[in-house]
Amino acid sequence: MNMRKGGLVPFYDLDRQERIRLTETAIAKGESLHSRWIALEAPEAKGWNARAAAAAEWLQGYRSVLDLGCGTMILEPHLADTVRYYPCDIVARDDRTVICDLNLEPPPVVEAEAVACLGLLEYLHQPQSVMAALAKNYPIAVVSYCVIDAMNPSKDRRAHGWVNDFDSVGIATMFEQAGWHIEQRKEHGAFQMLWQLSR
């Protein structure tokens, strides 16, 4: 087994049953899968580049962005050079990273005009609470989610480390109950959707 960052194996180097076991343990304990993110490497994140570019289109005109669950900070290169970028993740990505475990604590409050939640909500045990907290502090959000009623949905959600299961109506209802209004939505690929929200 190939050990990487922090002595951990990247999540997708583990076999399917082990990934499911880790996810189900995290669900039972209401915890985050730290090992999923500590061992995150750039090759996996390359697949998120198109999503980041699409999200950045909806973030044009905003002078500052909080990137929640920033991963390898793949959103930043798609933003204008003048945008102040606040990365936030469960582990430090560089010396700017605001460290926050959203399954244990509320999202940080920074001086940002917009917040991005890309590839984040699937890993949260209480996503509505997080979205409600964001609605109190940020006027705009751009959010992605892999809905269960997509054109070609993933049938193996736990093997991806995902801890919840919304369809497109359910997640839209969750946004509204958390204090958001859907400005725009669009399909992104075969199994994912993007929303631009305003509070």
TrEMBL record:
UniProt-listed SUPFAM superfamilies: S-adenosyl-L-methionine-dependent methyltransferases
InterPro entries: SAM-dependent_MTases_sf (IPR029063)
Protein name: Methyltransferase type 11 domain-containing protein
